[in-house]
Specification:
The protein has about 90 residues and is an alpha+beta fold. It has helices spanning about 5, 40-55; strands at about 10-20, 30-40, 60-70, 80-85. It has one domain. The protein has a 4-stranded antiparallel sheet with strand order 2-1-3-4, with helices on one face.
Length: about 90
């Protein structure tokens, strides 16, 4: 294995779905992650998000990619491919 192969970032393509939570005492409902799937391509993650968003029990769905540094295990900020329905604000992500 070459040193460039050891330091290459790994790309993760994720589809993540959300369901609405019941209103708390403050009267505000929220969102929580329902399902999370990992794919080998961006189009697979995006297609799954589009299908999941059509589901009656799904409040919203994201498809995004993140880069992982294999040396440190750190994962970067998500880069969204598609956001459908009721999804959390980016700051809440």
């Amino acid at each position: 294995m070459t040193s460039s192969e050891q330091t290459a970032e790994k790309i993760h393509y994720i589809c993540q779905t959300y369901v609405e939570t019941k209103a708390e005492r403050d009267g505000q409902a929220g969102l929580k992650i329902a399902k999370q799937y990992e794919y080998s391509t961006a189009s697979e993650a995006q297609n799954r998000a589009e299908r999941e968003a059509l589901s009656e029990d799904c409040a919203g769905a994201d498809a995004y990619m993140v880069l992982e540094d294999p040396n440190s295990g750190e994962v970067g900020t998500p880069s969204f491919l598609i956001r459908l329905g009721n999804v959390p604000e980016f700051d809440d992500f």
